[in-house]
Amino acid sequence: MSTPLLEANNLFCERDERVLFEQLSFTLNAGEILQVEGPNGSGKTTLLRILAGLSTAFEGELSWKGEPMSDVRDDFRASMLYFGHLPGVKATLTAEENLRWYCAVHPLTRIEGVHEALAKVGLRGYEDVPCHSLSAGQNRRVSLARLYFSEAPLWVLDEPFTAIDKRGVAEKEALIAAHAAKGGSVILTTHHELAIRDNVRQLALGGEIPR
Amino acid sequence: MSTPLLEANNLFCERDERVLFEQLSFTLNAGEILQVEGPNGSGKTTLLRILAGLSTAFEGELSWKGEPMSDVRDDFRASMLYFGHLPGVKATLTAEENLRWYCAVHPLTRIEGVHEALAKVGLRGYEDVPCHSLSAGQNRRVSLARLYFSEAPLWVLDEPFTAIDKRGVAEKEALIAAHAAKGGSVILTTHHELAIRDNVRQLALGGEIPR
Amino acid sequence: MSEPSVDISLTRVFWITLRRDLLLAYRRRNDLISPLMFFLMVATLFPLGVSPEPEFLSQVAAGVVWVAALLATLLSMDSLFRSDFDDGSLEQMLLSPQPLALLVLAKVVAHWTVSGLPLTILAPLLGVMLYLPGEGMSALIFSLLLGTPTLSLIGAIGAALTVGLRKGGVLITLLVLPLYIPVLIFGTGAVQAASTGLPIGGYLAILGAILALGVVLTPLAVAAGLRISVSN
Amino acid sequence: MSEPSVDISLTRVFWITLRRDLLLAYRRRNDLISPLMFFLMVATLFPLGVSPEPEFLSQVAAGVVWVAALLATLLSMDSLFRSDFDDGSLEQMLLSPQPLALLVLAKVVAHWTVSGLPLTILAPLLGVMLYLPGEGMSALIFSLLLGTPTLSLIGAIGAALTVGLRKGGVLITLLVLPLYIPVLIFGTGAVQAASTGLPIGGYLAILGAILALGVVLTPLAVAAGLRISVSN
Amino acid sequence: MAKSWKMPKWFYQLGSPRWCYEITGKLLPGFAIVAALLLVVGAVWGLAFAPEDYQQGNSFRIIYVHVPSAVLAQSCYMLMAVAGAISLIWKMKVADMVAKSCAPLGATLAVLALATGAIWGKPTWGTWWVWDARLTSMLILLFLFIGVYSLHHAIDNEINAGKAGAVLSLVGVVNIPIIKYSVEWWNTLHQTSTFKVTEKPAMPADMWIPLLIMVIGFYCFFAVSLMLRTRAEILEREKRSGWVRDLVEAR
Lengths: 211, 211, 232, 232, 251
Ligand code: HEM
Ligand SMILES: Nc1ncnc2c1ncn2[C@@H]1O[C@H](COP(=O)(O)OP(=O)(O)OP(=O)(O)O)[C@@H](O)[C@H]1O
Ligand SMILES: Nc1ncnc2c1ncn2[C@@H]1O[C@H](COP(=O)(O)OP(=O)(O)OP(=O)(O)O)[C@@H](O)[C@H]1O
Ligand SMILES: [Mg+2]
Ligand SMILES: [Mg+2]
Hints:
Shape of chain A: globular
Helix content of chain A: 25-40%
Oligomer: heteropentamer
CATH class of the largest domain in chain A: Alpha Beta
Number of domains of chain C: 1
CATH superfamily of the largest domain in chain A: P-loop containing nucleotide triphosphate hydrolases
Number of helices of chain C: 11
Shape of chain C: globular
CATH architecture of the largest domain in chain A: 3-Layer(aba) Sandwich
Strand content of chain A: 25-35%
Structural class of chain C: mainly alpha
Distance between the termini of chain A: 33 Å
Radius of gyration of chain A: 17 Å
Strand order of the largest sheet of chain A: 6-7-8-3-9
Number of strands of chain A: 9
Radius of gyration of chain C: 19 Å
Distance between the termini of chain C: 30 Å
Number of helices of chain A: 7
Strand content of chain C: under 5%
Structural class of chain A: alpha/beta
Number of domains of chain A: 2
Bound molecules: protoporphyrin IX containing FE, adenosine-5'-triphosphate, magnesium ion
Helix content of chain C: over 70%
Largest interface: C-D, 44 and 44 residues
Order of helices and strands of chain C: HHHHHHHHHHH
Number of strands of chain C: 0
Order of helices and strands of chain A: EEEHEEHEHHHHEHEE
Largest sheet of chain C: none
């Protein structure tokens, strides 16, 4: 068996004396989609931030391509695309300027793809509009456009479909499925019913999962 | 025919030289649910803010119970519950403190109902937690709890289901349907497929509506 | 339909809003000491940056304390409506049928209670540190007591007009400082008069009059400013 | 897998980040004049609040200009990382494989270019308004030129540590002001020495040394502070 | 907010951008000619023919720029505030545009007054700057202008920017008398100024007539630049309306 891309071993996290998860172990292989499920407040965002390295408030081990995470932090960061609750879009810059900067600080991206990506997320004609003049959904689309030109093998997506309209959701789902089909991996949370069926594994957090 | 509760006549709004809607007229009667539909950026939020009186960047007339809005602003404000993109929850206060203040400044509310409402939105046990320690969905639940103790006849809800888990969404939909059945009116936007069927009218904004 | 709004009396709305803002301040009570520390530090920087000689300091003490109080108020002003704006509470305030000017006044009173009032109480300490003549002390306290609420009120106008803008923090200074100047002049005037044995009644009367004018007019301007900022 | 990161050279990352921040500042170019106006106004408050007499003012001019520059920098500091934090850009910065200290340094340089540098350029005007002796003028400019970057660097540490807190604006003052004091002392020392005809080389050398130390060390401290604030 | 009080018809006409554009179009050439004439006459007379001041020699001639700009800067603030009030109360678009145009003009005038005063101060007082009541309140006026201007430009939405600017300039208007009074009082308390700017020098007619001409000329020139700015503003904001399109096509 090949070494898994990402491996979590015996994770434990509590916040304000409420245990969110304990003895949580899982692996993620290339080409797999892991959907973290759970009701509101079950710790999905917390888990994703831990995996991304944004939060250190946990116990347990993480490893990346078989090596302890702390040894390969930089390689991991270069290989990951993170999409969180905050879109990371600067309100006074235009969509294009925002994405160009992202390309500059994240190596595994194709800067030539920015323009096309904006068109793909339906922002053609809004290239020159500062992002504070975009609607809630459009703002998140700017950030989601990264999915079109990033070559990072691992995507970590926290509620990527929030505020996106139905057609947008369908397109993004297709994109995620295509990424997995090409051998990429995805960890995501969403309260939508995922239409993707292939290579999807569920990870349930929290006592009662609405089904 | 009785006078409609809310009437919009010939509304026109443009932002950054893009016309969002023009010659938009509609009425809303007691007991009706009006779902404003449209893709991202089609102007749903803008319309709701105009109706609520938060934005004045429009042309056209609004009337409330047959009288021009500007004459009956205060009565209208007292009769409306607005739920916007921002939940209006103070991070350093607890859920209960937040809602109690809301009751104080909004007359048509039952302050006795606050505690029970929090339980109903699944925040039992979180009463004493400051809201910054709540998850994204829990924060929005705090604000949604207002639906349980407000007696305002008109609800204006902008994407009320964002970040809410599936069970939560079902409960809120039932609540909205019950409100309409009791003679209340609702204007809402959502990218979810609404399960409610009775008394729902759609208002489409933007050229292409995803169906 | 609008009867219930009569039910909740205006005084009650005022008190509840005041209580809420004081509670908010209490929850973040570590922030409360910050304006005070700022106040103290400006008064410390001054001898360090300029001259530590007692005779010199005692001449300038009144002015330095007043300028420090003014800057400390100014610094804390930006946050008056910002968090309400960011989390949407401000929208809910504007949508309330209660008179907005009243809610605003409650917020300003709360703000003053946690900034201007402690400054006033701390001022004698600064006075001593800067060798303010003993006769000037009570004038300092009274002038601050009458002047700082005006500073909070005027500052609230600036805060209301800039709350919708990203990075309002510095613009507010620009809008508000020119309006602060009369208060500063009469405030320091009172202390200097007292230090030289002149009567201070006139100064305090003017400060009081400005305050009275401010209490009546500024909440209206602030309310107008808030509606503009939110509708943006 | 990590080859591409070598590809994008570090200098390029630095320049692009610097350019982005300057562009952001340019987009809100009206905000740029605000720290300057603040600077001017503090220098105005002082004669108004204390005494307008030329002989007196010329004694204190150096100190007042320096204190005003310090406060203006301090005021603008809070926004350094706040907007990046609020909109999530900061998370993306932390998740970049590029050295965070480098990105931070670029941001601080951009900040200084739009705040400290204009302050330095404007300082002679204030000097004239406060009757600073002509001999002190060049010392004022050089001391500010060497001192203000240090102020920005030190301020960035405070900004990084408080960015995760609501209402950091005032707390930052508390953290940063004590660290500013050495800069203030050597800065005003230089101007006062020059005004009395003494050599200023020693003062400038010390300011330069502090700056050199700051450029090397503070970005690391800032980077650490940011990681702590975000992981909160 | 006040419900519209009844106002005469011309008042509402003034509110129509189109009417305003047309009427200013007719007035502009007249004002421009008068302004040019007065400024040239006043300047030549004042600079070349007015007698030398027996104390200050020729340096006093800067008065012909200094006084008009100082006087005008103050009028400009009042105009800005009144226009702001009108736009707030009667929601008149044109008033809003006028108020917006006033801020940069007023700031320029204030800077001019300060600069000429400073230049004048150097030979007469031996210093560029004195913390005198007049000077200080002029400086504060400049700050107020810059505040209104910055606020205008910080807000993206035109209409809201106008309203915000109007609120601020109205607050400033309440404060201006207080500022003036306080600064004057403050100054008389601390400083015995050797030079009183306030006192009108007993000037010979040959000196003050050109001054009067210059003042009127400045007013006319101000009217011209205000109209030009406002017209540009009208075109910018009304560019989607039919009449502006016709106008553009006619060009
Ligand atoms: C930066 C320096 C100065 C400033 C800001 C300044 C400001 C003013 C102002 C605001 C006015 C009032 C116009 C009015 O409302 O009637 C004025 C008028 C005048 N100023 Fe200055 N001034 C300055 C320097 C000077 C100097 C150096 C002199 C000459 C010694 C001078 C002579 C006058 C005269 C003669 C008037 C006309 C007074 C009158 O008609 O009431 N000013 N100046
Ligand atoms: N502050 C603003 N200034 C200028 N234009 C704006 C502003 N806010 C929104 N817009 C523009 O108005 C349009 C409608 O925005 P709105 O927020 O109403 O859309 P929406 O239908 O609510 O979209 P979503 O589904 O994404 O929430 C967008 O195209 C946007 O570009
Ligand atoms: N900053 C914090 N400090 C303390 N506790 C927190 C903090 N943030 C979140 N929590 C707690 O951690 C739990 C999990 O939060 P988290 O944001 O991970 O939930 P989630 O599964 O993402 O929920 P949602 O579906 O609403 O986004 C919640 O119960 C919340 O109360
Ligand atoms: Mg979450
Ligand atoms: Mg919306």
